[in-house]
């Protein structure tokens, strides 16, 4: 992108590319002007068929279950995907990944000294329905330490990747849980300048969507572009 195009990024809504408190951003983000890729908005995203998705793919308490239910607090995460005009986006692929209830990922480079759960993989996917709605069943992730600074702990979060109708509509972000005491210490969360934009990443507890005797529910709505866009990672 030229500087001109680059300046169109809403710097108030989305995180700074280089945010020194989040140390690795200093090393991995570009310091030179970017090169514009012509016609990128014309490239449609892959289309995904409902037939290629199993209902179990959106249930992380079942999709890796071997013998027992995974350990931790079962939750429902649901919401609506909308475009910049507030219209629902159907058939949108949503993929999530997360740590288990002890704050540990299933990943070969994971070094956090916390137990793995053999019945929990921490990855799932689904498609939005004709109203743009999606729903996951999962386990509330634990906080985990990272080596960004002394005594650094990530607030509990779930990573989201969302494909809209075009490649430029792909959003990668993190969903948080309201009331987390770690927000004020987390440079990833705080790299988003605007408080309202930060709030759009925080899922809200819903007693109406909570399923009796089964699971708490959290609502996380996603806006792909525009003034109310959900903050996305660079
Ligand atoms: Fe994470």
Give a brief description.
With 234 residues, the chain is mainly β. It has helices at 3-6, 24-28, 187-190, 195-199, and strands spanning 74-82, 93-97, 123-127, 133-139, 144-145, 153-154, 157-163, 171-177, 202-211, 215-219, 222-223. Strands 1, 2, 3, 4, 7, 8, 9, 10 and 11 form a 9-stranded mixed β-sheet that branches. Strands 5-6 form a two-stranded antiparallel sheet.
What topology emerges from the helices and strands here?
Blueprint: H1 3-6, H2 24-28, E1 74-82, E2 93-97, E3 123-127, E4 133-139, E5 144-145, E6 153-154, E7 157-163, E8 171-177, H3 187-190, H4 195-199, E9 202-211, E10 215-219, E11 222-223
Parallel strand pairs: 1-10, 1-11, 8-9
Antiparallel strand pairs: 1-4, 2-3, 2-7, 5-6, 7-8, 9-10
Fe (ii) ion (FE2) is lined by residues 154, 157, 159.
- What is the name of the CATH class? Mainly Beta
Any idea what the CATH architecture is?
Sandwich
How is the biggest beta sheet arranged?
9 strands, mixed
Bound small molecules, by name, code or SMILES, are: fe (ii) ion
Q: Helical segment tally?
A: 4
| CATH H-level homologous superfamily name | Aromatic compound dioxygenase
């Amino acid at each position: 992108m030229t500087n001109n195009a680059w300046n169109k990024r809403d710097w108030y809504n989305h995180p700074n590319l280089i945010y020194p408190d989040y140390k690795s951003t200093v090393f991995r983000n570009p310091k030179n002007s970017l090169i514009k890729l012509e016609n990128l908005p014309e490239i449609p995203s892959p289309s995904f068929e409902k037939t290629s998705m199993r209902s179990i793919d959106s249930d992380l308490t079942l999709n890796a279950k071997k013998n027992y239910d995974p350990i931790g607090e079962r939750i429902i995460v649901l919401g609506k995907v909308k475009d910049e005009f507030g219209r629902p986006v159907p058939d949108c692929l949503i993929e999530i990944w997360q740590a288990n209830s002890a704050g540990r990922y299933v990943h070969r480079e994971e070094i956090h000294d916390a137990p793995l759960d053999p019945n929990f993989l921490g990855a799932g996917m689904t498609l939005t329905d004709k109203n743009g709605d999606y729903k996951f069943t999962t386990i509330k992730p634990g906080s985990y330490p990272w080596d960004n600074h002394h005594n650094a702990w990530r607030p509990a979060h779930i990573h989201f990747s969302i494909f809209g109708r075009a490649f430029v509509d792909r959003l990668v972000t993190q969903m948080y849980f309201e009331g987390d005491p770690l927000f004020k210490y987390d440079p990833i969360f705080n790299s988003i300048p605007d408080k309202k934009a930060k709030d759009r990443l925080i899922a809200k507890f819903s007693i109406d969507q909570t399923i009796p005797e089964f699971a708490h529910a959290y609502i996380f709505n996603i806006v792909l572009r525009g003034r109310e866009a959900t903050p996305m990672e660079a």
